[in-house]
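To illustrate the input format used throughout this study, we show a single complete record. The first block contains the structure-token representation of the backbone; no residue identities are included at this stage. The design step must infer an amino acid for every position from geometry alone.
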């Protein structure tokens, strides 16, 4: 049973788990690489690129959490909400709503 009724309730917690600027930057780099991998797979028609998407996304994010944030990624407890949170935070960083 989730301790959050919905994503709107979860997202403030998600942001609190990303208070370290370097962690957020690594998330942004990883998410950008995920987009690059997806575009590469589509444009090349070679779906073998897709195995790199979770490596890039989770790899950078987890380094940010373990090395800089000093916490466990929320993915371990709330995988779906965390995935959504990654992309909401990414979009908010692009728009200047969350600091790099």
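Output of the design step:
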């Amino acid at each position: 049973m989730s301790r959050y009724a919905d994503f709107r309730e979860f997202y403030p917690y998600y942001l609190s788990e990303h208070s370290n600027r370097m962690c957020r930057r690594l998330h942004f780099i990883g998410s950008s690489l995920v987009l690059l991998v997806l575009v590469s797979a589509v444009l090349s028609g070679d779906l073998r690129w897709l195995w790199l998407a979770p490596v890039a996304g989770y790899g950078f994010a987890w380094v940010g959490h373990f090395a800089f944030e000093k916490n466990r990624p929320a993915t371990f407890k709330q995988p779906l909400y965390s995935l959504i949170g990654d992309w909401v935070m990414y979009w908010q960083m692009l728009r200047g709503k969350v600091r790099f």
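Structural context for interpreting the output: The chain has a mean pLDDT of 96. The first helix runs from residue 7 to 16.
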